[in-house]
Design brief:
Blueprint lengths: L6 E5 L5 E15 L5 H10 L5 E15 L3 E5 L6 H9 L6 E7 L2 E4 L12 H11 L4 H15 L14 H12 L6 E5 L7 H16 L3 E5 L3 H7 L2 E6 L2 E6 L1 H10 L3
Helix pairs in contact: 3-4, 3-5, 4-5, 7-8
Length: about 260
């Protein structure tokens, strides 16, 4: 199996750079013709038919994020921002280039991945807490706060399969924000819940900003970019087209829709 050319490295250095991305490229192979059986695949190869096309998703990205920065990453659907997030999180590997993560990175990308629908809400809280590295005693001490934040009332002893998708995401988010990390990677988590729950999320991110927590927020909500971010990056067609002040980037993003 061919090894990836690019690198993603996790380190712990005493400097002011939390994330460094250099000359980052990523592409995917998309099938264009289905080969039925080995014989067809063999003749396709002889005829020079690859059976796939290459889609270049990220093209030569370069940026750094300092410790304590609250960074917004914005772009239209298909621009490449979610692929970038998954590379930073270690879900995808870079095709070319270097990604250096300085510290412990906690991704809030696919909330509730460790949930078991046959277990109750209470049991899933303890299960996810264990996956985050908390002891049973630690979970006992924070359980009431987790449940109160999620605003799920009397559902704690009902099986998760009886929860709506919104309820599951709220519970997952309430657990995830207890994770210990130097860098938080957030993908549209502010979109969950009603107005009251979103205000709780806003208050949580305001506290992160006050604490100078390193945060990367991928979002379509420009009001959150303006409110929370120290800096923002606009990605279009797999390239960084603007890296600057939140107001400047938010204005440029909105112009893409005009």
């Amino acid at each position: 199996m061919k090894r990836p050319i690019g690198t993603r490295t996790e380190i712990n250095l005493d400097n002011d750079i939390a994330i460094s991305v250099k000359n980052l490229h990523k592409s995917f192979k998309l099938p264009t013709e289905q080969a039925f059986g080995l014989k067809q695949a063999f003749f396709n190869r002889l005829r020079g038919i690859k059976g796939y096309k290459e889609q270049k998703v990220l093209k030569n990205l370069n940026f750094e994020i300092k410790k304590g920065e609250f960074i917004g990453i914005v772009g239209r659907n298909g621009s490449g921002k979610s692929t970038l997030l998954k590379i930073l999180a270690g879900i995808y590997y870079p095709e070319k280039g270097e990604v250096t993560i300085n510290g412990n990175l906690v991704p809030f990308i696919e909330l509730g991945v460790g949930f078991n629908p046959e277990l109750t809400g209470r049991e899933n809280v303890y299960l996810n807490g264990a996956l985050l590295g908390f002891s049973n005693e630690e979970m006992n001490s924070m359980y009431d706060d987790i449940w109160d934040f999620a605003e799920l009332g009397d559902f704690q002893d009902q099986k998760l399969k009886n929860y709506s998708s919104g309820m599951q995401v709220r519970l997952a988010f309430s657990i995830a924000i207890r994770a210990r990390g130097d860098i938080l990677l957030l993908d549209e988590v502010l979109a969950v819940g009603d107005a009251a729950f979103q205000q709780k999320c806003n208050n949580y991110f305001a506290r992160l900003k006050d604490k100078k927590q390193t945060v990367i927020l991928v979002t379509h909500a420009m009001e959150n970019v303006r409110k929370f971010c120290d800096r923002a990056i606009l990605i279009e067609n797999g390239k960084i087209t603007l890296d600057g002040a939140p107001e400047e980037v938010a204005t440029a993003y909105l112009k893409l829709w005009q």
